[in-house]
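INFO  loader      accepted 1 record
INFO  loader      residues=185
INFO  predictor   begin
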Amino acid sequence: MSGPAAELSLHRPLPRVLGMGAHLKASLCLIDGTAAAVTPPAGDMETLDAVERYDAMLADMLTHAGPLAACAHDLHPDFRTTQSAQALDCPAVAVQHHHAHIVATAWEHGVEGAVLGLALDGYGMGPGGASWGGELLRVDGPAYARLGHVAILRQPGGDVAAREPWRMAAAALHAMGRGDEIATR
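INFO  predictor   done
INFO  writer      dumping tokens
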């Protein structure tokens, strides 16, 4: 493991579930009863170093966890973390990326029941494979409804745009009819 897992207390007991993380800054979270252990980020999963760190942390957690009720993974089928979840011997549950952020934040603050949440961290695959980003969601545990979102912009380079924000700036200028202001690289 690249460092000790952070231990968090939960306000009520939950089944033993392993959260598998996403593609960027991937980390793991093991929930067991009223405790949650969160690993440090392994890194972005397109690098061999990050994949090796992630795999080592996953193996360590699985060694100490005992049988899992389920593992939760991102909706994106091509994420290495999703594929790792599907290879485990437990039910694999796909979770929309921004829904996961809002539920985790609510739980961190001891909030149960329906909440409104705004997730602005970038790309998250929506149902049916649609690209989502900047969601206002009504969340009630496992249920959610997308109430709104920021204006849709083309994401030049796909996920690369999350690490190279100039791409999104160029897309915004183009969408506003100001493409002539985009500087060449």
